[in-house]
Amino acid sequence: MRPDKRGGVRAVLKNLLRLLAIIAAAFLLNAVILLCLGKNVGQVYETLFTGAFAGKWNFARTLRWTSPLLLTGLAAAIGFRGGVFNLGIDGQLYMGAFAAAWVGFTFTRLPGPLLILLAALAAVAAGAAWAMLAGWIKIRFGASEVVITLMLNYVAKLFTEYLVMYPFYVPGTASDSKATANIAQQAHLTPLIQGSQVTTALLISLAAVVLVYLWTRHTVSGFETRLVGSNDRFAQFSGVKVKRRQLQIMAISGGLAGLCGALEILGVHGRFVVNFTSGLGFDGITVALLSGNNPLAVPLAALFMGAMTSGSTQLEMLGGVPRSMASILMGIIIMTVTIKQIPSVRALFRRRTEAGRA
């Protein structure tokens, strides 16, 4: 086996062991909380597990939530790996979702495959453009991308709501419920499990994971992305155009988020609905942290997050425990991951401060 392949396998195994250790520690801490509340820990965890994996429909619900988290997790991982903190994934997702919906209800005479491709490309372009706006402001004015991307989330959501309620408002249709007209029937993605919301979006998301991994491991631009993320000053001394590369990283991250928005519209909702989802971007950040920003580990982390979302529904219905208990568990996991990530985050900000002084 070639050295680079061995290194890739070792990295995946290391991230997998790290992920399992974090999850085990979080479950133990959460068990203490449940015991303090007088709950049956075994019964609660059994209900959580069966709600995520037992039975066709429970597992389908898990896969339904895994699909978008693959892309939002990948979008966050690319940003972190390139040393860019893209916290605007939700906004980029919304811009991409509206672009896909617009294509879907405008070009209704196009054949299905072409219409789906056009909608996906429009979503990728919209998400990338929205992310590049944040990247340009950061590069041009030296502003923090953390603040910019967070604020642009609100701008994107309010802007798309304005588009739905004014320029694209159609009285007497779905717009009355703060939604656009329905996309063309041929633009809907094919279900993988009949009667569920699991569609070919899952396959597209997995394909994106493979493509991003190949890009990061086997291309010059992917290598430069990792170099900029590990040490931007060294990358600059090595001849890498750091600012241009950071802008490219933002574009790729935003494009993946936009694609996620398109797949949600084409595969689940069938139209753009105001506030149709919330938190997918920040859940994606959790997925990226759990995976150690390794694209090949993103599916495992996304599956875990999807299982938690699916299992928490049954936990509330049958386990006699509020679904917020699953949120507490995820909060413990996020804190554990964050503690692990503090040294690298501090190092990144320290390098930026030293570069500014120089």
Which helices and strands appear, and what pairs or packs with what?
Layout: H1 3-36, H2 41-53, H3 56-81, H4 89-106, H5 112-141, H6 145-165, H7 201-218, H8 220-230, H9 232-237, H10 242-269, H11 280-290, H12 298-318, H13 324-357
Care to describe what's here?
This protein is mainly alpha-helical and 358 residues long. The model has no long low-confidence stretch (mean pLDDT 87). The chain has 13 helices and no strands.
What's the quick description here?
By secondary structure, the chain is an all-alpha fold. Helix content is 76%, strand content 0%.
Keywords:
358 residues, mainly alpha, 13 helices, globular
How many helices does DSSP assign? Answer: 13
How far apart are the termini?
43 Å
Computed CA radius of gyration, to the nearest angstrom = 21 Å
Main beta sheet: strand number and arrangement?
none
Given the C-alpha coordinates, what overall shape results? Answer: globular
- What is the succession of H and E elements? HHHHHHHHHHHHH
Helix content: over 70%
What percent strand? under 5%
Q: Which spans of ≥5 residues are poorly predicted at pLDDT below 50?
A: none
Chain-averaged pLDDT = 87
User: What is the total tally of β strands?
Assistant: 0
Structural class of the helix and strand makeup? mainly alpha
